[in-house]
Amino acid sequence: MKRTQTPILQTHALAIGYKASRQPAITIAQDLSLHMQRGQLVGLLGPNGAGKSTLMRTIAGMQKPLQGQILLNGADVHQIPAHDLAQHMSIVLTDRPNLGLLNGYALVALGRHPYTNWMGQLSEHDEDVVRWAVEAVGAEDLADKPVMELSDGQRQKLMIARALAQETELILLDEPTAYLDLPRRVEIMALLRHLAHDTGRAILISTHDLDLALRSADRLWLMSGGTIHTGTPEDLVLNGAFEAAFQSEGIAFDRQTGTFSLGTAPHTAVYVGGDGIAATWTRRALERAGYQLATESSASQAIITVTDTLTDGPCWHLHLADETYDVTSIDALLNTLQAHISSDR
Ligand SMILES: Nc1ncnc2c1ncn2[C@@H]1O[C@H](COP(=O)(O)OP(=O)(O)OP(=O)(O)O)[C@@H](O)[C@H]1O
Fold it and tell me: With a cut of 0.85, is the ipTM above it?
């Protein structure tokens, strides 16, 4: 008989939002029945204001649900004493905590707080875990620096390390990679995947990095319009939920290629002939400028042939309304196109 694993996190008929005394409640999302398994990296995606941070804070027990329940290992999160909860769940938020005069190492060491005695004394094991967490995010050079003097991205790395040092089975991260450069974002995502898959932790990460989430997360929670669609990234792309969630943001998602573009309505059709890197970047530039890429030269108003030679570099031959133009940069190509067909667009 196949054993079904009990989810580490479950919500039942959860409604999240805000309620001030003697005011009607503001519901951000409702009827949420979510679950997370150990060993999973789950990406929480949604447009600005969809309610990702509200959900994170509610799951973490920092904000009361309007209705329903959140269960961590079967126990109601809002009934678990804070000290016990901190041994099972860690959270990285986007706000800037006032960290006084702490240095990087001391900040990460705060993650050991649920395990230390009343004096906060670190054992040898605690020190090992802190060092491991600092190294895991590549922050060795920040350990001695005062946190107040660090950049947003540097501080963010340490906040992630602090959560790792807390050694919890569930880690919640609200936009942890927002201030990081691309290589570090990719690296942190890979680290989180490794932690989930190899150490059995459950990790929920909210992000606006759609592409990275699509490629890295085991499952997505797609939040928009007061509800959440869940599934593997690929299922959510194929059933149209992914596209629908971001359409209102003016972002167009191409299901064929898995790429995003700004949803500016294309007007003039142009055909680009030629292969290679110069042709690829020409197509990207044209799409960015709002042109529609035709698949047949007969269905286009302009035909562009890209040639790329080792000796002379790329060259663009433009055939437009019975005239031909040769240019040597994409800038000149766009200007020529604009000068001759802008009145039609
Ligand atoms: N304290 C509050 N009282 C009332 N409404 C709030 C409060 N905080 C946030 N909201 C509202 O809740 C909604 C969801 O906000 P939230 O910050 O959870 O969204 P988000 O998906 O995390 O957005 P972003 O991607 O921009 O960070 C927004 O409409 C916001 O204005």
Answer: yes
